[in-house]
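User: Design a sequence. Structure:
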């Protein structure tokens, strides 16, 4: 998926919601799952993709990321529950091949 995206990750107990932005969602999710970088998501084991939105431009994605990060947890949970009420990992079954 090489479109600008905003995405939400959580951990196995859904206690943390991380919001990120990327131009390559598949590659970025792989990086989170493999803990490529020592970061917030690796520290809190956030590697379950529960929500994402695609955009035409990175500027739109970044603006949406800022808007979502400014919101409260309840609003984030509502977005997830609308699209993914079981909080399933939306990246289950994705194949990760990178050079």
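Assistant: Done.
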């Amino acid at each position: 998926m090489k479109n600008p995206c905003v995405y939400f990750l959580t951990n196995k107990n859904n206690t943390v919601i991380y919001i990120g932005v990327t131009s390559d969602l598949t590659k970025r999710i792989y990086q989170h799952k493999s803990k490529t970088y020592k970061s917030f998501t690796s520290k809190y084991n956030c590697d379950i993709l529960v929500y994402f939105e695609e955009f035409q431009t990175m500027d739109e994605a970044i603006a949406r990321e800022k808007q979502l990060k400014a919101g409260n947890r309840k609003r984030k949970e509502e977005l997830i529950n609308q699209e993914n009420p079981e909080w399933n990992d939306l990246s289950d079954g994705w194949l990760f091949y990178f050079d």
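The radius of gyration is 13 Å. Strands lie at 5-10, 17-22, 48-54.
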